[in-house]
């Protein structure tokens, strides 16, 4: 079989196998759609149906919202909108684009690994290590923007590897263009992309080509024209980005310049944040504290990486050349966006994932190819533990994790709202949603659209259980509230009948629907 055909076959099989895990049962686990996902989904739905965002703007570059003035990143929304042009709105369909991005990352990792390590076998190792990285799998099943930066980083690495192998202006320009486009994926790329450009410049300095500046400048700037126009017409966005990444703790009292001691304390704190991102317990044992980002029974990375990463760093330092230096640097600077923002957050350390998979692959190659027989056995055992650990994680993710994480994903508001929507016929019932339910308005709009009831999208009212006089409401009014407190007045009133209750997988009642007699 010709090399191109063989590579194509591997890519198709890899995408099919990984897709079977990544793109199925998206509505099953995670158990519910969380509020941030809902806003991405609602923006994507209106783009798919009208070409305009929730504020009526035609094909905007950024999706500005009151709670996030800097605006949501466009790539995730437009990718989801493309899916919604073909599929009806549902919990599964709105997550599908992100799941396919996860599959794309695995395919790109194969191509990068094949180019960097010189064999399809090691490319497959790199791809499968990425596919079975818990954090990558988890975030591939949520409609959130951080994962969308990874394919652009991998495309940059692929073309940079081609440039290092055979320097050419066009190759370098394409590599830089991928980085430039990556700025549309996730706000933290504003911090990370300039650093990756510095790494690219180092590669150019080591292997220069003539007359490269203008083509590279064009590749960098042309993709940024829509962004530049947006900034020119929305000059406030610069300040909003600065606010989003404000250097917390550097502000002096009453507008004064912070003291040297205060700045020293902040620097020490930032250094502590940096090291905490490489905490072995976080990386290899328990993962993130949030059950949105972790099952808490597996680390951010596979346990085998605890051995493969240091071996890989050692091998790349000795034999990795300029690409080895880029991979090590990419791993070490991955927490930079979190350090700048003053908090280690899962979203902002997703940049660790592609570089960790590559460095771990370098470690596997060093043990399997260059080691003695005993070391090869150890290397095989380490690699075997990755799918074994992933299979256990996957079973947990599709099992008890759903029950344990239900509160983190907002609880079973879905069933309560669907019941309320089902009770509203041709004649609309006045419907009231408790303000004590976080983001109840988003949930109502999403499930109304998913149920095919666009006529009810705005047919609701938020109420304050502590101040609203329920006796004044019209008969047949519907009320949705949480069972843990804010439903108490209705539960004790003869004027209201509880017509349904939504329970969590463990049987705990979480939301109820009441009807006014």
Count of helices? 23
Q: What percent of residues are in strands?
A: 5-15%
Radius of gyration: 25 Å
The strand line-up of the biggest sheet is: 4-3-5-7-6
Provide structural commentary:
The chain is α/β, with parallel strands linked by helices. Helices cover about 60% and strands about 5% of the residues. The protein is built from 23 helices and seven strands. It has helices at about 5-20, 35-50, 75-85, 95-115, 120-130, 135-140, 150-165, 170-180, 190-205, 215-220, 225-235, 235-245, 260-275, 280-285, 305-320, 320-335, 335-340, 350-370, 375-395, 400-405, 415-420, 440-450, 490, and strands at about 65, 70, 430-435, 460-465, 480, 495-505, 510-515. Strands 4-3-5-7-6 form a five-stranded mixed β-sheet, with helices on one face. Helix 7 packs antiparallel against helix 8, helix 16 crosses helix 18 and helix 18 (about 350-370) packs antiparallel against helix 19 (about 375-395). The radius of gyration is 25 Å and the shape is globular. The termini are far apart. The relative contact order is 0.10. The model is unreliable at about 245-255 (pLDDT under 50).
């Amino acid at each position: 079989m010709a090399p191109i055909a063989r590579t194509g076959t591997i890519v198709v099989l890899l995408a099919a196998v990984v897709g079977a895990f990544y793109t199925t049962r998206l509505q099953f686990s995670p158990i519910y759609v969380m509020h941030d996902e809902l806003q991405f989904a609602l923006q994507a739905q209106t783009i798919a149906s009208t070409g305009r965002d929730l504020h009526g703007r035609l094909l905007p570059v950024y999706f500005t919202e009151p709670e996030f003035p800097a605006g949501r990143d466009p790539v995730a929304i437009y990718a989801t909108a493309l899916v919604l042009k073909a599929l009806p709105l549902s919990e599964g369909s709105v997550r599908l684009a992100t799941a396919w991005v996860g599959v794309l990352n695995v395919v790109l990792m194969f191509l990068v690994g094949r180019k960097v390590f010189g064999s399809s076998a090691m490319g497959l190792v790199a791809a499968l290590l990425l596919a079975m990285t818990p954090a990558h799998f988890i975030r591939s099943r949520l409609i959130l923007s951080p994962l969308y930066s990874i394919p652009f980083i991998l495309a940059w690495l692929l073309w940079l590897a081609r440039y290092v192998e055979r320097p050419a202006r066009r190759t370098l320009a394409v590599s830089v263009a991928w980085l430039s486009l990556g700025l549309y994926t996730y706000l933290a790329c504003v911090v990370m992309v300039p650093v990756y450009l510095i790494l690219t410049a180092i590669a150019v300095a080591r292997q220069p080509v003539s007359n490269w500046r203008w083509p590279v400048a064009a590749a960098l700037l042309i993709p940024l024209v829509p962004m530049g126009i947006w900034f020119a017409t929305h000059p406030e966005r610069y300040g909003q980005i600065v606010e989003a990444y404000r250097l917390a703790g550097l502000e002096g009292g009453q507008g004064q310049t912070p003291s040297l001691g205060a700045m020293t304390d902040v620097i020490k704190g930032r250094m502590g944040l940096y090291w905490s991102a490489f905490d072995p317990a976080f990386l290899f044992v328990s993962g993130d504290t949030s059950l949105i980002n972790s099952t808490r029974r597996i680390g951010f990375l596979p346990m085998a990486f605890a051995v493969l990463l240091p071996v890989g760093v050692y091998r790349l330092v000795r034999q990795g050349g300029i690409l080895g230096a880029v991979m090590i640097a990419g791993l070490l600077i991955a927490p930079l966006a979190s350090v700048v923002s003053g908090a280690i957050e899962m979203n902002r350390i997703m940049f660790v994932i592609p570089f960790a998979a590559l460095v771990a692959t370098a470690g596997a190659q060093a043990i399997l190819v260059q080691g003695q027989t005993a070391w090869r056995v150890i290397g095989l055992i380490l690699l075997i533990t990755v799918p074994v650990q992933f299979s256990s994680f996957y079973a947990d993710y599709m099992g008890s994790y759903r029950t344990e994480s239900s509160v983190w994903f907002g609880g079973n508001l879905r069933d309560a709202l669907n019941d309320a929507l089902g009770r509203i016929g041709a004649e609309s019932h006045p419907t009231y949603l408790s303000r004590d339910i976080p983001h109840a308005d988003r949930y109502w709009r999403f499930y109304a659209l998913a149920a095919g009831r666009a006529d009810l999208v705005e047919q609701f009212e938020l109420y304050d259980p502590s101040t609203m006089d329920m006796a004044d409401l019209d008969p047949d009014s519907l009320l949705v509230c949480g069972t843990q407190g804010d439903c108490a007045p209705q539960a004790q009133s003869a004027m209201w009948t509880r017509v349904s209750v939504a329970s969590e997988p463990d049987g705990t009642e979480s939301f109820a629907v009441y009807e006014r007699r």
